[in-house]
Fold each of these.
Amino acid sequence: MGAVYLGTYEPPKWRVLIVASRFNELVVDPLVEGAKRCLVRHGMDEANIDLAYAPGAAELPLLAKVGAKSGRYGAIICLGAVIRGATSHYDVVVSSMASGILNASLESEVPVIMGVLTTDSIEQALERAGTKAGNKGFDAAMAALEMRSVMDQIQS
Ligand code: INI
């Protein structure tokens, strides 16, 4: 059997860009804090964490792509919340956002992590932003660490 590549969570030597939406800030702010907490807990210097704000989830892919293609970041973490109850064009926003984030990742060959909550209600969103169902921002940062590590192993 050949190589097995499994991500590790060693202190990252690269910079990270968090791209967060301003929409639903009550939910998104704790996601940002969760992501930062995860990265710092894994040994990242806080000075290596940059943060860019988009107006809403629909604009996350462009900022993510610009960040990823800049060559400055080992990973990009997209954070936001699209809530069906408050969004008549929910399906359009979610599907274009998700495919845009995937496209940013594949085009740039930089991990672009989708830490965007897509829920039916504000209550469900809050549950995933640091209350009873964990913190999706923290989880997204874990995914960023893992993906960068696996990619570095494959490429080295
Ligand atoms: N953007 C969000 O991030 N979450 C939402 O729930 C939301 N709602 O409810 O509409 C939302 N809309 C704004 C959208 O992402 C764009 O910013 C806007 O359409 C301008 O392009």
Amino acid sequence: MAHSPIQHYLQALHARLGHLNAGEVADYIPELKQANPNWFGICIATQDGYVYEVGDCNQPFTIQSVSKPLTYGLALEQHGEAAVLKKIGVEPSGDAFNAISLHPQSGTPLNPLINAGAIAACSLVAGDSMEDKTAAILESFSRYAGRPLEIDHKVYQSESETGHRNRAIGWMLRNFSVIENDPTASLEAYFQQCSIRITCRDLAIMGATLANGGVNPITGQRALAEKYVANVLSVMATCGMYDASGDWLYRTGLPAKSGVGGGIMAVQPGRLGIAVFSPRLDAQGNSVRGLAVCQALTADLDLHMFDASQRAIPAIRRATTRRSVKSNQRRTQAANDYLLSVGKKLRLLQLHGALTFASIEPVIRTLTQDSENADFFIVNLKLVQGIDRTAADFLAGIRTELSELGKILLFTEAGACWQHLIDAGVAREAFFADDDFALEYGENQILGAGFSSPAKSSHTPLAECDLFLGLSTQELAWVDQHLVVRSFTKGQTIISAGQASNELFVLTQGAAMVSISTQDGMARLDAFSSGASFGEVAFLDRSPRSANVTALSPVVCRVLTREAFDQLDTQAPAIKIRLLGNLAARLTTILRQTSRELASLK
Ligand code: DON
């Protein structure tokens, strides 16, 4: 297997920044002094769960303050945004992590990522005892990491024995009724939370879990309700690096959180989780090598969230009309000519990418503007990777607007978007399996509104069948004598894929369709009513049948066997020439339509 240039890049970065020896290992929690200052790991986990690692990525260390945004998320899940905002603010303190930064009036901690806010968040975690709270926190963190995590009891002990400042903070919070009972259980749970043993790899996966909307991309397990991910990432962006948060966001544009164990977890929302482990800390308590690595990654890989080059990809991949695409429903030349002439009345939009406000706006604008001249809209969602509530609401909204004008908007191949659109109020009948059926429905609507087709008897005389057009009465009599009659009930299979192809079929009554099975289910290739012929391609090249033909109603066919067809060479060559001419005309029509459709793909 080839070596990944991305792995090469990370190895080079690790080698380059491994020489950075500024900073000191934390020692105010004595046990932390045991850390080897040269430990150094860089890890990137992608939103779909692929992990790049270089250096000491499996060296255990304690999570410390990187734990704080995760506990904040747990408190939000357990109490809701409003209740938590009453207890903990979201303003950067501009102070050190262990400053007693409380709101002058309310006494509430300014944000959940300074110790005061983190202790308050711990007090909100369900459970009266330290054990209950810690169990809930461990269970939550383990979902982020995708493996069961444990507490480093030596570090916990060391912190609990020396955590006097945090205890003071705890009692201050009690004093302001931010914590409404004895803070001891919350304090001990906080110390345990900070002492959870992780690795750099765990941290990257935790970051990727946040990047992936709260779902661990490796285990698929949800660690945080999607609606709170933005809350957690917001405070990480503004407060995650304490009194260096402004400089951090300016240089990296990534929400992040550091810890005195030497870890930094950064997140590129929707894309990446980044983790760096190096115990050498600067004056703010942030890993020196961690800062340098993340700034280099942002600069080298264009990760900055506010980088305008990451513009929304317009969702419209293809916009076309009935002039270029058509259903597989075979229609009379007159009907096809009419549909071609009013082709602009039917619009087909194929969307792709992630549907959010920025990408759906051009779609809504197009549908709104096109509503002047078009009556029928098909929006294909097959290539859409995701849709958010806003985009679903606006699609539902424009469908309602159009229907109030008597215009129709259908969705095809909705896949994962279906439930979002249903939740946004789109009716079930607005969904069609694929463009073919939706186009046929649209064509029928447009024909019904403006095309008066000559009344068609249920039975089509041979003279009016496509294959026999232009034959003389005498020739028709010869054909009539040599054709076999076959009848089929509705739903009955007329031709199965793989069968030998020794018959050519002419439909004189009813309707039928040609279909193949695909991984997405049945795909319709052709549909036709009486007067049409079918099975000619395999009949002509003598290959096995490549598709199934099913009766859509009671069907009567006249069948030309290979034997009768071969007899024509000697008995009626003029008829054979006429038949082959008609077949060629039909195949030309198919080819012309296919190239029109291919051209519209460009
Ligand atoms: O409360 C403390 O002081 C530690 N358990 C956590 C502090 C920390 O990680 C600050 N981060 N840079």
